Amino acid sequence: MTNKDKKRILTGVRPTGALHLGHYVGALENWTRLQEEYDCFFLIADYQAMGDHLDDIEGIRRSVYEVTLDWLSVGLDPGKSSFVIQSHVPEHAELAMLLSMVTPLGWLERNPTLKAERVRLESEGLSVGFYTYPVSQVADIALPKANLVPVGEDQVPHIEMTREVVRRFNRMFGQTFPEPDSLVGRVARLPGTDGEAKMSKSLGNVIYLSDEEEAVNQKVRSMYTDPNRTRADIPGRVEGNPVFAYHDAFNSDHDEVSDLKDRYTKGLVGDVEVKQKLANAINRFLDPIREKRTYYEGHPMVVKEALFEGTRKAKSVAEATMREVREKMGISYFVDES
Ligand code: ATP
Ligand code: MG
Fold it and tell me: How does DSSP assign 9-52, residue by residue?
């Protein structure tokens, strides 16, 4: 099957730092699998990053490169999929503006993910651009007419809103965009090393895919665990304990994990051993990713070429969609009507 006959995927990340274990199990793992069956557009959403990182364009610029290295290191393949820099396809901005007219304000106000993020950002003086980012995400998905959006759980409300906005557009102007489905990864929301519900760049509670072995050991050693367990002989809780959430997600030795859980709940194992085994498991998991990264770090032209080619392809798809959108909406004023 050629890419032309395949269904489309659009998904992405914000270039606000390197990628972490949460991205992997929540999203990237699915992406690597799905790129075999779908025509994939992986978006580096730099416009979206500016909503709350406008004071650090240099950081965004660095992260565009970092994220691409992370993608290549986990096995995303620019020969099969398109890596796209959002701001280099300005049609994203045009469609976002048009779709903002289609979206009632109330749909943004009730969005639970946005509400939670707003609490964090209000004290810093939230920008209009940040507030409307879910609409820009609708446009990102609609532009290549994506059918599927593989994301972490926090993004699901945005995909639901996407379905509603494109349905409304299609009703008003005629069938144009498919209603996309979301697909959540193996771990819907990986907790942070500090025990917070989500591992997140903005919260600084992350283990990066690019962390060296010693950084992983140190982060795991200081991880939040069952706070009631002040001695190794006190029975501990496995549920809600991020150390065990990570064992479940990254330790491929399932016998070791069930043995540790069993001894932990009986007060027969110390935290030091549980954490040491976790650090080893994460390092085993990261080793092949590190190896690929070393290769791509030595071949920067391959990294740049991936971005260049993917963005070029996305631009041509975007131009075709926008011609259709302008025509459907009846805003091609200079077209001869005689
Ligand atoms: P920021 O804090 O800057 O928003 P982030 O860590 O949330 O950063 P994004 O670029 O916003 O990262 O998210 C990219 C993708 O990774 C999204 O699909 C998101 O749902 C997913 N994701 C991010 N963190 C996690 C996590 N801890 N568990 C599962 N999925 C996650
Ligand atoms: Mg986020």
Answer: EEEEE-SSS--BHHHIIIIIHHHHHHTTTSEEEEEE-HHHHHHH
